[in-house]
């Protein structure tokens, strides 16, 4: 497919400029002003739109294999493309777990068949995510796994986690830690604070996250292996990562759209739509997470897209599973709630997460001749609200109904092929 994108506002690592982008055979071949269409080219008029490197999501639950009633790799990939993502990292808490080459390859091949975004499977740190026996890191790394995580659970055993970091150091892969000391969170359904006391609900202390952040920072200091901290949610966690970076340690971190926008007070509705892991925190925590993104302490915005069928979210709070949809709303939430230069928001959604995922040679690339054509085009000023029935996901558990969002994706190009045009998926 040959494409000419005209009249756009290009924003990437090199800065901002206006111009047109010519694409041929999956590669950007020309950048300039006043480029004229050639025979056979598909033309996209990007007047009023930002053209950026495609977004990369480090943290997505695609549910397949095992829970296809909530999501499939195809439907999740479609939501990703509609949200401007050209690559996602699929979390391993599937059934069976992504702890073997066979399951990892199944997820990868399903992503290729869908053809809507690149799907990069993560591997679990422990077999079955049970926290008892390490997975075959070398075998999984051999087939391209770069991030290992037991997401949904933190690895509780510090000695086991030390060995994982030692293997990671030898293999050149990254441990992505879900930071939760489970003995402190048993039975909790929301953040521990004045709001939970008022509502009479069991609380989840910030300390449960911060203790494991501290532990893993010290394991990084000991082993020299890189660590990535998933979905940071507390002011204390942000401060710990900031100090670790100041010490020169190889740590990175992500924050979710909901942890920069929604507070624990929303639990006053008793709706399980607002139940997430880690829980929604206080406005002070939100400000700290936003500041962490602004000063680079937190590297990436990652959705933690977690679809659930409606009946599971209608269960009592202590039985309902945690998680929210996020792929199609991430940009709108980020631009509505972050007081950051646009280029910095895009860095956190594109080239920084691409580097952490080990795919920076293919995604999050500068918009220059010779680079892969993985691009997103969006209107940064359009305000809109979510209509759950119009989302691509098989599930409807979004907390952003009735919440004004700013910025909407119009077109997505994957490997030089238009997969979303005028806000509609073409596959």
Tag the structure with descriptive keywords.
single chain; 427 residues; alpha/beta; 2 domains; nine-stranded mixed sheet; five-stranded parallel sheet; 19 strands; globular
Give the helix/strand layout.
Elements: E1 2-12, E2 15-24, E3 27-32, E4 42-45, E5 50-53, E6 55-60, H1 73-82, E7 85-90, H2 101-114, E8 118-121, H3 137-142, E9 147-148, H4 158-171, E10 174-177, E11 190-191, H5 194-199, E12 203-204, H6 206-223, E13 227-229, H7 235-246, E14 251-255, H8 283-295, E15 300-301, H9 310-313, H10 330-337, H11 342-349, H12 351-357, E16 375-384, E17 405-414, E18 417-421, E19 424-425
Helix pairs in contact: 1-2, 4-6, 6-7, 7-8
Descriptive overview:
With 427 residues, this protein is of the alpha/beta class. The chain folds into two domains: 2-50 and 370-425, Roll (Urease, subunit C, domain 1), CATH 2.30.40.10; 54-357, TIM Barrel (Alpha-Beta Barrel), CATH 3.20.20. It has twelve helices and 19 strands. The protein has helices at 73-82, 101-114, 137-142, 158-171, 194-199, 206-223, 235-246, 283-295, 310-313, 330-337, 342-349, 351-357, and strands at residues 2-12, 15-24, 27-32, 42-45, 50-53, 55-60, 85-90, 118-121, 147-148, 174-177, 190-191, 203-204, 227-229, 251-255, 300-301, 375-384, 405-414, 417-421, 424-425. Strands 1, 2, 3, 4, 5, 16, 17, 18 and 19 form a nine-stranded mixed beta sheet that branches. Helix 7 links the parallel strand 13 and strand 14 (251-255). Helix 4 (158-171) crosses helix 6. The longest helix is centred in the middle third of the chain and has 18 residues, at 206-223. The mean pLDDT is 96.
């Amino acid at each position: 497919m040959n494409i000419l994108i005209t009249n756009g506002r290009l924003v990437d690592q090199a800065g901002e400029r206006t111009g047109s982008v010519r694409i041929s055979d999956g590669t950007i071949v020309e950048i300039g002003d006043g480029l004229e269409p050639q025979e056979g080219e598909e033309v996209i008029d990007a007047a009023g739109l930002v053209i950026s490197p495609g977004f990369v999501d480090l943290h997505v639950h695609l549910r397949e294999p095992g829970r296809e009633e909530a999501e499939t790799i195809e439907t999740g990939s479609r939501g990703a493309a509609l949200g401007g993502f050209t690559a996602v990292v699929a979390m391993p808490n599937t059934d069976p777990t992504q702890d073997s080459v066979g399951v990892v390859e199944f997820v990868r091949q399903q992503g290729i068949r869908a053809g809507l975004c690149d799907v990069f499977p993560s591997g679990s740190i422990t077999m079955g995510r049970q926290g008892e026996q390490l997975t075959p890191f070398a075998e999984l790394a051999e087939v391209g796994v770069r991030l290992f995580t037991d997401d949904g659970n933190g690895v509780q055993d510090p000695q086991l986690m030390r060995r994982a970091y030692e293997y990671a150091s030898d293999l050149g892969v990254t441990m992505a830690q879900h930071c939760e000391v489970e003995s402190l969170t048993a039975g909790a359904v929301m953040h521990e604070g004045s709001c939970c006391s008022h509502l009479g609900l069991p609380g989840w202390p910030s300390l449960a996250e911060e203790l494991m952040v501290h532990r893993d920072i010290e394991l990084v200091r000991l082993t020299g292996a890189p660590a990535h901290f998933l979905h940071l949610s507390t002011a204390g966690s942000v401060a710990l990562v900031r100090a670790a970076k100041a010490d020169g340690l190889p740590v990175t971190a992500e924050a979710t759209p909901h942890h920069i926008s929604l507070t624990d007070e929303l639990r006053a509705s008793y709706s399980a739509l607002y139940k997430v892991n880690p829980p929604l925190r206080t406005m002070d925590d939100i400000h700290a997470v936003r500041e962490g993104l602004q000063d680079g302490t937190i590297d990436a915005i990652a959705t933690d897209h977690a679809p659930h069928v409606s009946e599971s979210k209608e269960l009592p709070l202590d039985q309902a599973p945690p998680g929210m949809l996020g792929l199609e709303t991430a940009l709108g939430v980020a631009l509505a709630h972050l007081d950051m230069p646009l280029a910095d928001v895009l860095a956190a959604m594109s080239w920084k997460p691409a580097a952490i995922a080990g795919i920076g040679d293919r995604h999050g690339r500068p918009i220059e001749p010779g680079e892969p054509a993985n691009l997103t085009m969006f209107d940064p000023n359009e305000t809109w609200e979510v209509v759950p029935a119009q989302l691509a996901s098989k599930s409807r558990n979004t907390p952003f109904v009735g919440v004004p969002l700013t910025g909407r994706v119009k077109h997505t190009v994957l490997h030089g092929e238009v997969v979303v045009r005028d806000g509609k998926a073409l596959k």
